[in-house]
Amino acid sequence: MFYQIKRLVVKEGHSSQVIERFSKRGMLIEQQPGFLDKQVLVKKSRRGNEEVMVMISWQTEQDWKNWEKHPDHIAGHKAKIGQPKSDYILESSQDIYDVI
Predict the structure, then answer these.
(1) CA-wise closest residue to 55 among 43, 67, 40
(2) Residue 59: how many CB atoms within 10 A of its CB?
(3) Which domain holds residue 31?
(4) Which of 27, 37, 49, 92 is the most exposed place for a label (fewest CB within 10 A)?
(5) Best CA proximity match to 31, nearest among 2, 6, 74, 67
(6) Among 100, 89, 66, 73, which residue's Cα sits nearest to residue 19?
(7) Which DSSP letter does residue 12 get?
(8) Contact in structure between 30 and 72 (CB atoms under 8 Å)
(9) How confident is the model at residue 10 (pLDDT cuts 50, 70, 90)?
(10) pTM, entire model
C-alpha cells in the first residue's frame, strides 16, 4: 500500500473550505485503478492557523503515478493556471509514503 499525503496550513476559520474541496465523494480520483481510500484530517487549534491533511491511499506507487499523469488530472491543474491562489492557504506540501 502507498499513501499520498497533502498538508495544508490555512488561516484561522478557513479549514472548512479545504475540507469541502477534498471531502467530496464521486470525484474522478476515486474511479482510478488502484485508488483505495481518502481521508481528510483537521488539526484544531485554540487560536491561529489551522492544518488540514488529506491522506489518499493507493494499492501501489505506480497507481498513484498513473493518476498524476492522467489527462483529466493534468487538465484540472491546467484549468487553474492564471487564476488567483486562495489567500487563506498559507502553506502546502505533499509527501509520499510506503506502508511497511
Answers:
(1) 40
(2) 13
(3) 2-98
(4) 37
(5) 67
(6) 89
(7) T
(8) no
(9) very high
(10) 0.84
